[in-house]
Amino acid sequence: MSALFWNRNTxxxxxxxxxxxxxxxMGHGVGIPDPVIAGIxxxxxSLIKVRxxxxxxxxxxxxxxxxxxxxxxxxxxxxxILTTRFLWVGV
Amino acid sequence: MRQAVSYKKTHIPGEVGIWxxxxxxxxxxxxxxxxxxxxxxxxxxxxTESQAQLNQTLGMLNTILMLTSSWLVASGVQAARRNESLVxxxxxxxxxGCGIAFMAVKYLEYGEKISVGLNMWSNDFFMLYxxxxxxxxxxxxxxxxxxxxxxxxxxxxxxxxxxLRNIETGATFWHLVDLLWxxxxxLIYLMGQS
Lengths: 91, 194
Fold this sequence. Notes:
Structural class of chain B: mainly alpha
Helix content of chain A: over 70%
Structural class of chain A: mainly alpha
Number of helices of chain B: 6
Largest interface: A-B, 53 and 48 residues
Oligomer: heterodimer
Distance between the termini of chain A: 56 Å
Radius of gyration of chain A: 16 Å
Order of helices and strands of chain B: HHHHHH
Low-confidence stretches of chain A: none
């Protein structure tokens, strides 16, 4: 039963919950005064959380390499595209 | 302890088809994320002001509910590999509980907005907020059904290879619901606020 709790998944859960709280704080001006920079950091943190869920909870870590590469490509690509769109305001 | 399945060097959890569906759904939502920021670029002040009227604390609570439900589902899948059917059912039941709690929070949140006259016709931000979180909510309802359904493969002390694959497939769909919310929360509730 203890294998259910004291394992990698629980550690991952703790990290992504803390990352969530950190994002919430940043969305309230804590730590990073500039809302633009805070916004980008929040996006990056969100994508890191996505990667952790994909690779650990969803076990992509043990999946064929092509799936892992597609996932990473999409995460990075989405990060770049959304960051660019977020910054290019008023165009 | 008999292992239910023997693994090759790599393993795809569940049916391959669920991963194709996942990729398609993520792609569609990626487009929706871009569209949100596109609308925002046209009127960032309106978006920032409207966003400030969202309840970020309820949003964070919902995020933690989603993350916890995913942890429970992942734990359940691992228990299924150990043929611990009771643990599987408990984990999935609690995950469903988190899903129901998520829906309750959403109900409160929507209620808060509507009671002050904010709805999907108020402005572009609220149109996107209600539409995107609404589509996600449909995924939550479907996911609860899926989890309830695949739990039936963990009835006895022997989970078949087919049953395990179905449990993994259902788990993968549920994680998709979590993934979508993680980005939605950051994008709609937090990005741009100070």
